Amino acid sequence: MRKSRRTWIAPLVCLTLLACDDEPESKSRPQFEADAGADAGPDSDSRGPAYAVISSDFAATSVSLLAADGDIVADDYLNSGSTETGLVTALSGDVEMPTRSGEPGVLVLLDRFKTDVVTRVELSSGDVLGQVQVGDSAADGDDAFTANPQDYLRVDATTAWIARSEPNLKPDAAEANLGNDLIRIDPRTMERTEDRIDLSPLNGRASRVDPMTGAEEEVDVYARPGRFARVGDTLIVGLARSAFDFSAVGSGLVAVVNLKTKAIGGLEIEDLQGCNYVSPIPGANDRVLVGCGGVYPTPRDSAGIAILRVSNGKASVVKSWKAKEHEDAPAVSEGYVAIDPNTVGATLNGFVPGDSDSVFGTIDLESGDFTTLLSTPAGGTFGTPLYDAESGKLFVPDSSVDGDLRPTAGVRVLERSDDGAFEETNVLEVAKDTGLPARHVFRL
Q1: Global model pTM greater than 0.70
Q2: Which of 47, 203, 263, 289 has its CA 20 to 30 A from that of 274?
Q3: What DSSP designation does 15 have?
Q4: What separation in angstroms does the CA of 80 have from each of 27, 56, 298?
Q5: Which CATH number applies to 199-382: 1.10.12, 1.25.40, 3.40.390, 2.40.128?
């Protein structure tokens, strides 16, 4: 996955400016009804969780749970200090969740770079169902391999696919540890299988400037799968397509995978790069959103959005928005969220003082217009948002902190009116006892 400035700058600030908070302490977790995590809708009588919020300072993580109406039903439900039975590996500070796990009633956590662990927790009981190691980051020296899992999808009782972003360049690496692929696990046993879908045919070449000589050269870029979305038996997989050291990025491409035959193809996303974000679109079962972050430090040149139509195992681009064609709009390059087939939310983040303000807003794909909904001074960033089309609620995590690195915001909640406009209605303060800023919101 293309590393953003957030990935490297935030830990540096935490480590060099002042000491981070101690890791949060473990505590007993609440239990919920058996339908917890199901898509019950905002009018359901169920008070079980429907969404999860991940808060992190990139050293420790806390997971809080929200009901369908947006109320907090379990603050700091699970954290990096948790030591319950089944948690063999504690949560790191780099944790996310699947785009759509396909497992109602189960909390699935992806512990990513240099941890490489997928964790499943049964929400109704609070029991840890198990963990599986999808890389070999714990191996000694040159044998270590970090898989950096990016997404997870349960297909049936015995099959779940995991995107492993990192390629393994060791010439004697076993096939099971090659990475740059989709790997199948058995959710019942939480064990890896021998099945994998190799995405290396979608590797390529890209140009970069050699930092030592200043000469332009071509280097290998690797597919690096990111987020994905399922349409029937077709899986659309976002690809970062970057060099091993992230010094170059290839042309925009997504993988089109047949889940039955494991056949793969590639669809070019013209004029865009870094297209590793993919998600379903509310109200359009045959469409998916592709978000392309472009190339740092000039994302405007190649950042943008594409809407794909998927039919009979084939995909095509039906709409696009390119930042370079809209100089009056912010060069949004992350925080993509599908609102409807014609409206997409996106973010431009200013990571350090002196940058422009961080901005979140919506893009009308017909007119190309950008509407600013939220802003915060540079240093505070907007993370992974979530839109619930049934309730019309839009959840946007705001990581703003004060001079002591204590959160000053939380999850900002906006509601959509009948005319399509959004208005901020609430701010949810999550993980209050941990002092960790909100980073991501996901559907359970």
Answers
A1: yes
A2: 263
A3: H
A4: 11, 10, 35
A5: 2.40.128
| Domain-wise residue ranges, the chain | 199-382
Handedness of CA 98, 267, 147, 93 (dihedral sign): negative
Beta strands in 210-245 (DSSP E): 216-221, 225-231, 234-239
Task: Please state, as a whole number, how many other Cβ atoms lie within 10 Å of the Cβ of residue 298.
Answer: 11
**pLDDT for 11:** 36
Give the mean pLDDT of 262-288.
Answer: 97
Residue range 82-88: average pLDDT? Answer: 83
- State which amino acid sits at residue 150: Q
The DSSP 8-state label assigned to residue 347 in this structure reads E
Q: Which two tokens stand for residue 424?
A: 């901020």
Cα(117)–Cα(110) distance, integer angstroms:
6
CB atoms within 10 A of CB 403: 8
> Tens digits of per-residue pLDDT, 145-199?
999 999 999 999 999 999 999 999 998 999 999 999 999 999 999 999 999 999 9
Instruction: State the number of CA atoms in the 13 A half-sphere of 309 facing the CB.
Output: 6
